[in-house]
Amino acid sequence: MLVGLAWLAGLGAAEARRNYGFARNPNFEPATSIPRLRTSSRGNAAKTLPRSFDWRNIDGVNYAVADVQQHAPVYCGSCWVHAVVAMLNDRLKIARRAAFPDVMLARQVLINCAPKSTNGSLNVGFNGCDGGDERDIYVALLQRENWLPDETCQPYEARNRSCDALHTCTNCMPTDDGGSNCFEVPAFTTYGISSWRAITTPQMGAAEREAAIQEEIFAAGPVVCNFAAIPEFDENYTAVAQQHGGVYRTAANVTSDDINHDIVLAGWGITQGGVKFWVGRNSWGTFWGDNGWFRIERGVNALLIEGACTSAVPTFDALDDELDGAQGGGPLGLAQISPKGERWSHRPGRSSMPPFLAKAHATDLLLQLGEGGQAPPKLGSASLMPSLVALALALALAVSAYAAGAAAARRHVRLDGRAESDGARASLLSGAMGAH
Ligand SMILES: *[C@@H]1O[C@H](CO)[C@@H](O)[C@H](O)[C@H]1NC(C)=O
Ligand SMILES: *[C@@H]1O[C@H](CO)[C@@H](O)[C@H](O)[C@H]1NC(C)=O
Ligand SMILES: *[C@@H]1O[C@H](CO)[C@@H](O)[C@H](O)[C@H]1NC(C)=O
Ligand SMILES: *[C@@H]1O[C@H](CO)[C@@H](O)[C@H](O)[C@H]1NC(C)=O
């Protein structure tokens, strides 16, 4: 905490140039004419776009894979890797209709084998923690089909490592003298992309850009966008958003030279006060912003967030093979099941929600149980009762312990727009102008 405060206090002019890991590759031709998504039956998709949309809650199902963060255990400018990986993770989940498993692609492998920012070929000697251009990752994923493993092959270290077999997929075994022997795993489930595209360009009009991003998110999943993360966004996101119905707004003037970050947009909405916003995913930990996510004003290219967005289509044939029993694995990696061996699909069988959970919100059930520890009536078969009660009591204990500890820290970001006022906006604007 003290170190953190000292760090904040020490922020100076150089601070404005902090780079979270975006380094533009000038060799990419600027995207010019970009075909809009159209569906033959519905015409322009923009006409059918809902008022609000969020991949974290589509009819109760969350398609956003878990959050991670880029800056620990050491500072690493890997936003470009994080944004691409988050976009692909979620698109995999969407394409697979949230079926098991959630896939988290290996960020560290992209850092180790960072595509060189001069010609898109795989590294050697380029350091992924120094930042890069997300388009180089797409090019590299297309060049070498299906080579990216998931996180279980290579945990995130936030360090530049070499690009070799050991630093692509590793396993370790204990040695007799209590040490650890690590070795490369030669075969593992791999992922790739089949295509990528630019969605917006800085030259497009504001309305056209906004619609193009919405259509892409709606039709295909989250997108990666370049972003000028000013210090106020980093350090005071929540305070500023609270003045605007839970949406970050700024009048800061930024140029393309200020672009220092890549983020993911995964939805949009509008507050009751009428502020249109994007739903964005950051890679700075769940302790930052809205559980690691953020809402930012939509349609005004705030901090250039709408100016250069891209996306890619993930491929997962190897996962299908594995789930269908073509391959099996051990500590030395995956192996083809011998032709004589019988295959066993290990896709999970479909099952139903336990009836008591399907009927009530789990929290309602816990509240009932919390008062005197009485089980709610009609829990189904009597033989099931003892274990259900034990489970529910354990959950209730955990919830009350959490509530006691966390109540004081809860934030109440109002989304009804009532906090929005000309006065608040004026003071925000003068603050932003003062800072820049
Ligand atoms: C890319 O650049 C690296 C380093 O300059 C070079 O070794 C490599 O051959 C280049 N690759 C292509 C495809 O031009
Ligand atoms: C990565 O390598 C660059 C260049 O050598 C260096 O400046 C940077 O500190 C390294 N970062 C990490 C986290 O290893
Ligand atoms: C964040 O807010 C605090 C309190 O209003 C202010 O002192 C500080 O300058 C702000 N920092 C930035 C980077 O905007
Ligand atoms: C942003 O730049 C424009 C054009 O240079 C200028 O008119 C405007 O006052 C600037 N706004 C702020 C908040 O600095």
UniProtKB/TrEMBL annotation:
One of its GO terms (molecular function) is cysteine-type peptidase activity. PROSITE patterns: THIOL_PROTEASE_ASN (PS00640). Keywords: Membrane, Signal, Transmembrane, Transmembrane helix. The keyword Hydrolase does not apply. Residues 1-16 form the signal peptide. Residues 49-313 form the Peptidase C1A papain C-terminal domain. One of its GO terms (biological process) is proteolysis. This is Peptidase C1A papain C-terminal domain-containing protein.
